[in-house]
What does this fold into?
Amino acid sequence: MSDLYDELELQRQREHSRLERVLLLSLVIVLAYTALAYLLLPLFWTHYEHQKGLASLPMVTRTAQGIPGDPMNVGLVGTTTDVVCAMHQAGWYPADPITLKSSIEIVGSVLLDRPYKDAPVSNLYYLGRREDLAFEKPIGQNADRRNHVRYWKVLDQGEEKRPVWLGAATEDRGVGVSHYTAAVTHHISADLDAERALLTADLENARVVDAKYQVTGIGPTLTGRNGGGDLYYTDGEIWVLRLVEACKKRDGPAVTIPSPPATEMKDQIWHAIAGAMGK
It folds into this structure.
């Protein structure tokens, strides 16, 4: 009887020891994954060699209440005149300022299904100030759906000795209520990279882009939330477009300045994962 008890006790100790090893191994894997995914790889992928002045800047806007808003996903290099002319050539309209008249007009546009191609956009804030410029491109017949972008001038002189702008481009998919504040607002489509691609393609097709390159934005994000509580996902890169000067159109396609190999590898991995998840 004693031998049986000893054998059972030995077996119990072995199982306990095996469980401890499994738990320890699981802990090591979790810690290694956390360090790799959230500390090492983001540092490895971070790159500002084409525009060093952006390295210390935040890459997310904020609402008037201080809630994190839309992330930056596009950049422009050029004067205010260059930016306004380029957006006009690309078929984007400057947004009206928010006034009582424009507020009534946007409500009428949505309710009566009538065009308002330069409807106002709500203010977002970056480094304590609201957007310097805002543009939009209508989708359909009214202001319910539209492409839009807000720009802030963030550097008076970048690597090209010209002003640098950061922008947050999103697609409004309909009017609703903010998930955070219950205020009436536009809800955005989740795929920020698609909106960035549409805007950059419009500018390139207008032949007002001299060159383009990537810098790091907020980094790869699958479950982001903007100031209205809307879900978004993105590869986390900012495509910076160097505009032609004085709106003199370029003869050929824009030059693409390559990213570091690690970033290009990360982008390939991102698109594979996003594709597998149906993003």
